[in-house]
């Protein structure tokens, strides 16, 4: 895996893992509910694999579903946190991609 891809894999993996743990979900439970293979989810969370877009959205939608099961105060706090984390993830990905041209120039 190239350095840029490794960086993206770690950013996405940290996002999934952090939000899963914030909800108190096991990896097995999230994988089952998102209809994703356990080993695939483990590789994603450990930064060893960049998920396909479809897989990533299934995981995010599952996290959002479980956040909606919380009571209103916790739901608001988690959804706000999930949205902020997602925004931060997107910004970090854009930063990595923007620096791609700089890496090639060196």
Secondary-structure blueprint of this entry?
Blueprint: H1 3-22, H2 27-34, H3 38-45, H4 53-68, H5 72-98, H6 100-105
Helix pairs in contact: 1-5, 2-3, 2-4
Hey, roughly how much beta strand do the residues contain? under 5%
SSE sequence, one letter per element: HHHHHH
- Mean pLDDT across the residues is 82
Distance between the termini: 19 Å
Count the DSSP helices: 6
The multimeric state of the shown protein is single chain
Largest sheet, strands/sense/barrel: none
CATH architecture: Orthogonal Bundle
Please, how many domains?
1
Shape: globular
What do you see in this structure?
The protein has 6 helices and no strands. By secondary structure, it is mainly α. Helix 1 packs antiparallel against helix 5 (72-98), helix 2 crosses helix 3 (38-45) and helix 2 (27-34) crosses helix 4 (53-68). The longest helix is centred in the C-terminal third of the chain and has 27 residues, at 72-98. Helices cover 80% and strands 0% of the residues. It has one domain: lambda repressor-like DNA-binding domains (434 Repressor (Amino-terminal Domain)), CATH 1.10.260.40.
């Amino acid at each position: 895996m190239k350095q840029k891809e490794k960086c993206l894999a770690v950013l996405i993996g940290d996002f999934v893992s952090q939000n899963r743990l914030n909800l108190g979900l096991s990896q097995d439970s999230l994988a089952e509910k998102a209809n994703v293979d356990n080993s695939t989810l483990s590789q994603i969370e450990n930064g060893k694999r960049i998920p396909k877009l479809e897989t990533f959205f299934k995981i995010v939608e599952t996290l959002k579903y479980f956040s909606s099961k919380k009571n209103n105060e916790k739901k608001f706090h988690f959804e706000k946190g999930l949205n902020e984390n997602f925004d931060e993830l997107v910004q970090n990905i854009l930063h990595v991609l923007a620096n791609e041209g700089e890496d090639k120039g060196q």
